Amino acid sequence: MRAWLVLAALPSWVWGQACVVETPIDEHQSVRLCQENVSIPKSMFSGGFCQPQLKDKVVTVSFVEQCPAESYGVCRNAQVQGTPYRQHIHYYGHASDGVYLRVACEKQYHGQWQDLARP
Question: Measured between alpha carbons, how far is residue 78 from residues 6, 51, 97, 108 in Å?
Answer without folding.
Answer: 29, 17, 17, 9
